[in-house]
């Protein structure tokens, strides 16, 4: 009898022990499942991100193509021979008084393509004008104000478009190829801005030999503007200054004009590289940079 009671007590102890350990086993098993799931996600995450990025690029490209295909029809504008188009475009270069080395280099660039009628626009030294804020943002404000000054001071009379260049712009096209790109841009009334320099971080769509339209263009080293875009760009660039004063990078000019590329306006870029930054000391970055 006593042996039977001992067996019952042992069984009860085993039952209580099982009831106590069961939640711990379940919790341990669940933790193991979470760990395994996390590992699978961690290994699959880079591929998933790439797939999402690829889908986003395809969506942007499709949207850009749809906008172009459904744009209001405008007749092409007949102009002079492509070889004469440079005479119909004004040129301004933004240059700090202290960077005489750069203005000399830009003068050589213009001589290479036989342009002598260009003007220098005094760049605004943002770090001197706004000493109380982060040097990167003060320099960016100076850059934006300089581009506004270049657009505002351009003499549009008798010109079909105006080219705005920063003084470290290095041309990669000869006169003939540059003239061909400019002629294609001017002849198409649907195009608003030609970014001779620009990295498209959104989407691109080829619209014919030598040209494509782009979204998400970053960089304002050299671009060509048709007259109707003067006030549009000045307004957009000006709206970015308060953001830069607050330390917001999206206030930079090449960030502000990206929204224009998403809906109402078409920004063109050459199919082949046309301009790059010359290597040297960058006043905005505050360090020496290579050609880019």
Task: Note the run of SSEs as H and E.
Answer: HEHEHHEEHEEEEHHHEEEE
What is the spatial order of strands in the main beta sheet?
2-1-3-8-5-9-7-6
Overall 3D shape = elongated
**Biggest beta sheet attributes:** 8 strands, mixed
Concise account of the structure shown:
This protein has 292 residues and is of the alpha/beta class. Helix content is 48%, strand content 20%. An eight-stranded mixed β-sheet has the order 2-1-3-8-5-9-7-6.
Topology:
Elements: H1 2-69, E1 89-95, H2 100-112, E2 119-122, H3 126-129, H4 135-153, E3 161-166, E4 169-171, H5 175-187, E5 193-195, E6 199-208, E7 211-218, E8 222-225, H6 230-245, H7 253-256, H8 258-261, E9 267-270, E10 275-277, E11 280-282, E12 287-289
Parallel strand pairs: 1-2, 1-3, 5-9
Antiparallel strand pairs: 3-8, 4-10, 5-8, 6-7, 7-9, 11-12
Helix pairs in contact: 4-6
């Amino acid at each position: 009898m006593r042996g039977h009671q001992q067996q019952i007590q042992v069984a009860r102890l085993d039952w209580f022990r099982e009831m106590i350990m069961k939640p711990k086993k379940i919790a341990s098993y669940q933790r193991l499942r979470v760990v395994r799931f996390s590992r699978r996600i961690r290994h699959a995450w880079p591929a998933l991100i790439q797939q999402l990025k690829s889908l986003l690029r395809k969506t942007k490209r499709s949207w850009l193509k749809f906008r172009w295909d459904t744009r209001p029809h405008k007749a092409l504008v007949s102009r002079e021979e492509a070889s004469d188009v440079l005479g119909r475009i004004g040129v301004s270069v933004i240059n700090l008084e202290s960077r005489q080395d750069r203005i000399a280099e830009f003068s050589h660039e213009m001589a290479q393509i036989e342009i002598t009628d260009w003007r220098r626009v005094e760049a605004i030294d943002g770090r001197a004008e706004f000493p109380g804020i982060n040097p990167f943002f003060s320099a960016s404000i100076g850059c934006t104000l300089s581009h506004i000054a270049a657009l505002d001071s351009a003499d549009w009379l008798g010109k079909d478009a105006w080219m705005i260049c920063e003084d470290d712009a290095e041309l990669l096209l000869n006169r003939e190829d540059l003239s061909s790109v400019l002629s294609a841009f001017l002849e198409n009334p649907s195009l608003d801005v030609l970014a001779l320099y620009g990295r498209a971080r959104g989407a691109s769509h080829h619209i014919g030999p030598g040209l494509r339209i782009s979204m998400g263009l970053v960089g304002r080293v050299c671009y060509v503007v048709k007259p109707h875009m003067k006030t549009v760009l000045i307004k957009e660039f000006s709206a970015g200054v308060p953001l830069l004063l607050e330390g917001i990078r999206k206030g930079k000019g090449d960030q502000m004009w990206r929204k224009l590329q998403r809906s109402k306006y078409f920004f063109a870029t050459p199919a082949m590289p046309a301009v790059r930054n010359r290597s040297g000391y960058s006043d905005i970055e505050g360090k020496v940079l290579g050609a880019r």
